[in-house]
């Protein structure tokens, strides 16, 4: 019997693409640069490459930020003070709260029936600030983010730590998230049921999830 819900944050609660684009635009303004879609596409490409290397253990998070600064400075052909581009981008991202359609209605519905916890990779202070600023924090019993947990999804230790702290077993929990690798496979490996938020209606061959929805409102039919 489900007693508690784990919910991912980026691209499940907040629209990360919109938040990231807004932060990128504000960062460019600080350097007196005009926003172009191709610039944002390049920035996303750099992020994808660097964060993939970080997850593989090839570089650490500090090196991600240093290399991102260097590559963006080279791309725009400007001299960027060490760490400045990254610091500005992260600073603006702290306050970005573009919500995914239907999330507040879903949280209101779930809060009457279950305990609700975030289960997110990222920076705790950033995620906590965004939840408070959006006034969504009132729906959560606890905020769990990887840098405080000490492990990242899909590591089984991430989910085990949450179970240890909440005193709920895997049978008591269900995970809602948009990432097959982090949320769905992570939950499956910990024997936790899952709801895959497939908002782009991707064709998935390996059905590691328990349920699948395209819109958050569909979750009300499941829980």
TrEMBL record:
EC code(s) of this entry: 3.-.-.-
Entry keyword set: Hydrolase
Keyword Hydrolase: yes
GO molecular function, one term: 5'-nucleotidase activity
Pfam families: HAD_2
InterPro entries from the UniProt entry: HAD-like_sf, HAD-SF_hydro_IA, HAD-SF_hydro_IA_YjjG/PynA, HAD_2, HAD_sf, PGP-like_dom2, Pyrimidine_5'-ntase_YjjG
Xref: NCBIfam families: HAD-SF-IA-v1 (TIGR01549), YjjG_YfnB (TIGR02254)
The name this protein goes by in its record: HAD-hydrolase YfnB
Gene: yfnB
């Amino acid at each position: 019997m489900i007693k508690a819900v784990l919910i991912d944050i980026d691209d499940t609660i907040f629209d990360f693409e919109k938040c990231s684009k807004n932060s990128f635009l504000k960062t460019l303004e600080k350097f007196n640069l005009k926003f172009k879609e191709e610039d944002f596409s390049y920035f996303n490409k750099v992020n994808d490459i660097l964060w993939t290397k970080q997850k593989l253990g090839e570089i650490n998070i500090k090196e991600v930020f240093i290399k991102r600064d260097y590559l963006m400075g080279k791309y725009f052909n400007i001299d960027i003070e060490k760490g400045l581009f990254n610091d500005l981008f992260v600073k603006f991202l702290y306050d970005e709260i573009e919500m995914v359609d239907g999330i507040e209605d879903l949280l209101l519905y779930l809060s009457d029936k279950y305990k609700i916890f975030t289960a997110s990779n990222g920076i705790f202070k950033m995620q906590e600030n965004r939840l408070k600023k959006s006034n969504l924090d009132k729906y959560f019993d606890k905020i769990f983010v990887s840098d405080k947990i000490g492990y990242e999804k899909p590591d089984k230790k991430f989910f085990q730590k949450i179970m240890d702290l909440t005193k709920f077993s895997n049978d008591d929990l269900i995970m809602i998230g948009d990432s097959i690798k982090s949320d769905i496979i992570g939950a499956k490996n910990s024997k936790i049921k899952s709801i895959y938020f497939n908002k782009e209606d991707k064709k998935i061959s390996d059905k590691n999830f328990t349920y699948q929805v395209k819109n958050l409102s569909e979750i009300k039919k499941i829980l």
